[in-house]
Design brief:
The protein has 142 residues and is an all-alpha fold. The chain has 2 domains: 1-73 and 90-103, lambda repressor-like DNA-binding domains (434 Repressor (Amino-terminal Domain)); 105-142. It is built from 7 helices and no strands.
């Protein structure tokens, strides 16, 4: 069974139509149509959103292995280490992204990390530029 077939089965089993499913997982309708037609592979953001919102087992969606849905959170032992002084805790979406990336082959992980670093650098440059503009505006007004 292909991933697009499993995705269609997931939508059917969810009791929603495609449009409703798209709204819940925040994926554009046309993009979902492409996933279902097999003309586009599911991206990391869509996969993460589907996993978080529908509680689908990403192993099942990607490979067909395992149960369709993840165990209920209450059934799982807490594997999150307790925060230590000075540490930060990640929000659930970031944790889901990390788990999804960890399931990728090493080459895909490296590609994802490189792309994420490029985007972070672009954001950093944008913020620095924004700060410069704000400083110049303040100086102009003074």
């Amino acid at each position: 069974m292909s991933m697009s077939t499993r995705l269609r089965q997931l939508i059917n089993d969810s009791g929603m139509n495609i449009k409703e499913f798209c709204d819940v997982v925040d994926v554009p309708y046309k993009t979902m149509q492409n996933y279902l037609a097999g003309t586009r592979k599911i991206g990391i953001e869509a996969l993460t959103s589907i996993s978080l919102q529908i509680k689908v087992n990403t192993d099942w969606l990607l490979t067909g292995e395992g149960p369709m849905f993840r165990q209920q959170e209450a059934d799982k032992p807490d594997q999150t280490p307790a925060p230590t002084e000075g540490s930060t805790t990640l929000d659930p979406k970031m944790t889901a992204v990390i788990k999804t990336v960890q399931m990728m082959p090493l080459e895909k992980q490296q590609e994802f990390i490189a792309e994420t670093q490029k985007r972070a650098e672009s954001i950093k440059q944008f913020l620095e530029m924004q700060e410069r503009i704000e400083r110049l505006e303040k100086e102009k007004c003074a």
